[in-house]
Design brief:
Strand content: 15-25%
Radius of gyration: 21 Å
Largest sheet: 7 strands, mixed
CATH topology of the largest domain: Aspartate Aminotransferase, domain 2
Family: Belongs to the threonine aldolase family.
GO cellular component, one term: cytosol
Number of strands: 12
Modified residues (N6-(pyridoxal phosphate)lysine): 200
CATH superfamily of the largest domain: Type I PLP-dependent aspartate aminotransferase-like (Major domain)
Structural class: alpha/beta
CATH class of the largest domain: Alpha Beta
Number of helices: 14
Number of domains: 2
EC number: 4.1.2.48
Order of helices and strands: EHHEHEHHEHEHEHHEEHHHEEHEEH
Domain Aromatic amino acid beta-eliminating lyase/threonine aldolase: 5-286
Helix content: 40-55%
Shape: globular
Length: 341
Amino acid sequence: MKTLDLRSDTVTQPTNEMRQAMANAIVGDDVYGDDPTVIELETQAAARLGKEAALFVPSGTFGNQLAILTHCQRGDEVIVGDDSHIVWHEAGAAAVIGGVQLRTLESDQGRLNPQAIKAKIRHGIDIHEPKTGLICLENAHSNGRVIPLQNMQDIWAIAQAQQVPVHLDGARVFNAATHLGVNAKEITQYCDTVMCCLSKGLAAPVGSILAGPADFIARARKLRKMLGGGLRQVGVLAAPGLIALNTMTMRLGEDHAHAQQLALALSQMDGIDIDLASVQINMVWFRFRHEIDVAALMSAFAAAHIKVNPPENGWMRLVTHWQIESTDLVRISAVLRQFAG
């Protein structure tokens, strides 16, 4: 029986086309700047993201933290949502690597209030205050919601007026673009720099992209080396990245449709709470209305050859990707139906 893995879209296996591309990749030494496959990936990624230049980095966390390090001086503060990936899932790296403090704002399901951001910006004029070095946004948010373009535009206008740069954690920016029916650059026009992951729903085995102005990327390239991210014959990883960028971005709507199909099935179960309107990309969040035996739930999923993460603070997340087909959703729903009554 085929094993289904819905723990995240980070579990995606590379496609056969990607594996072949890795084997056939023309490589050089990327630290010397002569790996042609990496150069091609960075050039195409910059164009897709509407930026002057791009840099291949090992991971999304690496890309976000490299952006913070490059934008900020030690002792700066970064304004960011309190439920963001940078706050929750990057191991306190901003303090350790960038030497900055995170000034968090309460978000409305990932959406930040522009006026609240404006009120928090500090320019370090008073000797007691740090300077706001950066504003970080996230779209699509890791809660599965897509942030409206108007919200990003409003924050961008404030940041421009206050001369504070904006970085977008766009790990799933192509999911956001798919949901909104726009090109990714229509989202990234409202940020100075953007990180996007190739190794989540786009199925590349490794890697993310950091994109922005050419002078910023030049500084980031040196800092990437300092952090140990100067890889060598990395064209073997850039080759599947090109397929991720050019092929896998075009099929994300299938993953979204499967998530909506699964969410609809769950909404018809009496013992499950789910907000169908919140299923905007490839993530399905729900909770049981009554107490359940979590160990028994996990055992039932394991017996059905399905990998999931257990509920956290009452909420459970299932994530679709290219290896989850429409026919697989019946097996997933059947396990949950046992516990929904």
